[in-house]
Design goal:
The structure is a homodimer of 212-residue chains.
Chain A (H helix, E strand, L loop, with lengths): L3 H24 L2 H8 L3 H8 L2 H24 L6 H18 L3 H11 L1 H7 L10 H11 L8 H17 L1 H8 L3 H24 L10
The first copy, chain A, binds a DNA duplex (30 and 30 nucleotides) through helix 1 and helix 3.
DNA sequence: TCTAAATTTAAACAATTGTTTAAAACATTT
DNA sequence: AAATGTTTTAAACAATTGTTTAAATTTAGA
């Protein structure tokens, strides 16, 4: 077993990850992956049996890595709920800046493989066990936080962070914002999103009037 | 020119729309579309020249319809900014409830066809011309509204509405919310999202402290 | 009704694509 | 160095897929 084995195997995975994320399962051709990896076409099957098997490995790894990061922050027992929100938004946005194509890839995967995910990821059922979630419910019980379905908070949290990246091509088109400025806006959001989220939890919201 | 012409042409477009939205361009096979439409395989090429041409027609129509709806509301000169927000959220969510697959389809399309869209849609450059946008800027000028980049507001607006639909398979997986309850949550958001958005515009946001 | 045009069909074509094969190149062990 | 196992390669295979063809069917107009 020479040292090269791990090298080529890793080269293929890296290339596959890139091509799959870029073009999806059907759009990615085995020859594209081989070319990107700089290897012979047959090596893909030699190391990973089939395109499908390779894809499923990449898919599961990507999803797992992603949720591991998410869950790690939300499950710390030392930090307050507010600190969790701050930390979550900060690291989440920073991660997405480095991997802006990952969320759309994951969302497409989950959509196209719902049944597979339902079977494999009992992991997901833990969400109500997260420390974050318990802190949230405790504050609701104490009446300190507005009594809304936690899913709403989750959707707003994820939506305000993820959506700009998922929709970035559209946003850049519509607003005429160039790539460079876009990242700056994302940096601004690291501070702003937590503030908005906390407002949702605490402020008693009434209708606003404005005479224009 | 018999009456059937429009019928079959329409049958193909309807089927293509469904299959393309479900599986994307590469994932959708011409034979799938023909089967779904209940027509002979060759008719697709007879009416639409090629798979690519058919896809581009569907893609452009979908995007155009979508933005037409959006722009119509945001460009009304009679309604106040607040009413625009209310109306926008309401009709947007109601539309997405009926076509939950459209946003992910559009986002994928724009991502994969950035150059095409840049050329074809000078339409998009109008966004700063929308009545909504002028009202927004006027309130900022008057100091009635916080001075943030309008893109932030746009991202939050779109994110809080669209993201739950784009991510619905993931959300259902993670939160264990069934289909029926999901639509109920979306109905709740018709009232809540506007309130949250207005808070973002008006409330002076400070840090929140909570002793846990 | 007869003719010409338009539409539909079954079959075939040609290119692409995932996969396999069998030999070659390389590394490791004895 | 010979033998053995591992990795890489070029070529071919078989299935799929977008597209075309040419004949059959239907429709519309004179």
């Amino acid at each position: 077993m020479p040292d090269k084995e791990l090298q080529t195997e890793e080269k293929i995975k890296l290339a596959a990850r890139k091509i799959f994320q870029e073009k999806g399962f059907e759009g990615a051709k085995t020859r594209d992956i081989a070319k990107e990896a700089g290897i012979n076409l047959a090596l893909m099957n030699y190391y990973f049996r089939s395109k499908k098997a390779l894809f499923e490995m990449i898919m599961m790894e990507t999803v797992q890595e992603f949720f591991q990061m998410v869950f790690q922050i939300l499950n710390k027992s030392e930090t307050s709920l507010m600190d969790k929100i701050d930390g979550f938004v900060e690291t989440y946005i920073e991660t997405l800046k480095k991997n802006p194509e990952v969320p759309l890839f994951i969302l497409s995967c989950v959509k196209s493989n719902q049944v597979e995910f339902q079977k494999k990821f009992s992991m997901f059922q833990m969400i109500s066990e997260l420390h974050f979630f318990k802190q949230f419910q405790e504050l609701v019980k104490q009446g300190k936080v507005k009594n809304i379905h936690p899913a709403h908070f989750l959707m707003n949290l994820a939506g305000m962070i993820v959506f700009p990246f998922v929709a970035s091509p559209m946003i850049k088109l519509v607003t005429q914002i160039p790539e460079s400025e876009f990242d700056l806006l994302m940096d601004q959001r690291k501070k702003m999103v937590p503030l908005w989220l906390k407002d949702m939890l605490f402020k008693t919201t009434l209708d606003h009037q404005t005479n224009e």
